[in-house]
Amino acid sequence: MFEVAADGWCGQALRVVSPNCDARPIDSGIDLLVIHNISLPPGQFGGESICELFTNRLDCDAHPYFDRLRALRVSAHFLIRRDGVVVQFVSANDRAWHAGPSSFGERGRCNDFSIGIELEGTDFEPYAEPQYVSLAALTFALQARYRLTDVAGHEHIAPGRKTDPGPFFDWRHYRRALNRQLLLVQKCSVLGFPTSLRPEKSI
Ligand SMILES: [Zn+2]
């Protein structure tokens, strides 16, 4: 089980703090999850390049593709690696810079009210099962902390400009994994525990 604390940090995630964030606008709710993909260089998995990019430490001379990333200041709240390990860069209470120009329904500037989750991957190949497992667990933990109402892909909030997470992201599989989390918790909650184990009321 994952848990997101009141300060917006998930205790089960590796913490790599990014400076690429700021405060959300006052009165901005947090109700949308945005799913992305990223791999650096594209199509290559593993390594530290994504963490380095999100913390402005990427050596842009290390690979020809990185040249276009110079001066880019971006982040996401979370990255889920191929093995399911979750890295967190920005408190979910704050605004990460993941969506860019975007809109959801009538609202623009999705960074204001969304939480961005990057899956290490591409538009051209399936995601790894541990990523779905971690994504569902993380989603569930975020739902417990924030009044999330919707989840969308970057491709849905920036159509024509963005294509991630792409056709290989299995939305049905994600929903099933999320429902399994829900069932798990519901089952746990109906178990009767010995009276002595129930949390005591604090006065
Ligand atoms: Zn994206």
**N to C succession of SSEs:** EEEHEEEEEEHEHH
CATH topology value: Lysozyme-like
Give start-end ranges of low-pLDDT stretches: none
Q: In the CATH hierarchy, what is the architecture at level 2?
A: 3-Layer(aba) Sandwich
Describe the biggest sheet?
A: 6 strands, mixed
**Mean pLDDT metric:** 92
What number of structural domains do the residues give?
Answer: 1
- Number of distinct helices: 4
Helical residue percent?
10-25%
Global shape: globular
At the first level of CATH, the class is Alpha Beta
Brief overview:
With 203 residues, the protein is of the alpha/beta class. The chain has helices at residues 49-54, 129-145, 154-157, 171-190; strands at 14-15, 21-22, 32-38, 78-80, 86-88, 95-96, 103-104, 107-108, 114-120, 150-153. It has a single domain, classed as Lysozyme-like.
Structure description:
- This protein is of the alpha/beta class and 203 residues long.
- The protein has a single domain, classed as Lysozyme-like (3-Layer(aba) Sandwich).
- It is built from four helices and ten strands.
- The strands form three sheets. The chain has a six-stranded mixed sheet with strand order 1-5-4-9-3-10. A two-stranded antiparallel sheet has the order 2-6.
- Helix 2 crosses helix 4.
- It is globular and about 60 Å long.
- The mean pLDDT is 92.
